[in-house]
Amino acid sequence: MDTKRALERHLSRVRGFDEPRVELEQYPTPAGIAAHLVHIADLRGDLGGTVLDLGTGTGMLALGVALRSPERVIGLDADPAAIETARENARRVDPPRDPDWVLGDGGRPGLCPAGATVLMNPPFGAQRGRRGADRRFLASALDVADVVYSIHNAGSRGFVESFAADRGWRMTHAYGLAFDLDRQFEFHERERTTIEAECYRLVRE
To answer: Domain Methyltransferase small, which positions (predicted)?
Structure first.
């Protein structure tokens, strides 16, 4: 895939959740944001080996990475319906090499090849009973990877930077993001809302 625009065009084929689960904070990652982050990671040489997407959901980030032909892509999610959606989206996008779709908890991913890159949009922990969900995912990513790209609520930089530093990691970049999300749950009052977020690039010291 030569350009970011071409990447976004391919990822626009990814469909969202048929029945999103609010308790799992299943909000889709927009194609434009996924294409932007994958393009940045590729330019920095972070996509050459194994890339892991924790909490892959619809498979958007994993499929974006797969279009750049890394050695291996793993998309992991705890929801069987999400894994099936990701598989269907892989057929729509048709990357050169399909990701390996794995059913499992992104907060406890298990074994992962050494030197992997994690690229993820974890739950923000905004729902009742899900407080700290982003912390669990971030801890897992720092345990299994050498480079991490992780999306969080805007204003999380201080926490993420400190959390990473305590584990021997360093933040190299922070990217501001704006998620335009369509109404998908009953408690949403607007047809479309914009969520301000940030993606942080972290490297092991």
So the answer is: 42-141
List Cα–Cα distances, 13 to 17, 29, 31, in angstroms.
13, 13, 9
Give the integer Cα–Cα distance in Å for 71 and 163: 29
pTM: 0.89
Confidence of residue 203 (pLDDT cuts 50, 70, 90): very high
Residue bearing tokens 């974006």: 64
Residue 11, classified by CB atoms within 10 Å of its CB into exposed (0-12), middle (13-18) or buried (19+), is: buried
Interatomic CA distance for residues 137 and 109, integer angstroms:
9
105 burial level (CB within 10 Å; 0-12, 13-18, 19+) = middle
The angle at the Cα of 205, spanning 34 to 162, to the nearest 5 degrees, equals 70
- Return mean pLDDT, the chain: 87
| Cα–Cα separations (whole angstroms), residue 112 to 41, 61, 116 | 19, 18, 7
**Under DSSP, is residue 105 helix (H, G, I), strand (E, B) or coil?**
coil
Q: List the chain domain ranges.
A: 4-204
Among residues of the chain, what percentage have pLDDT more than 90? 65
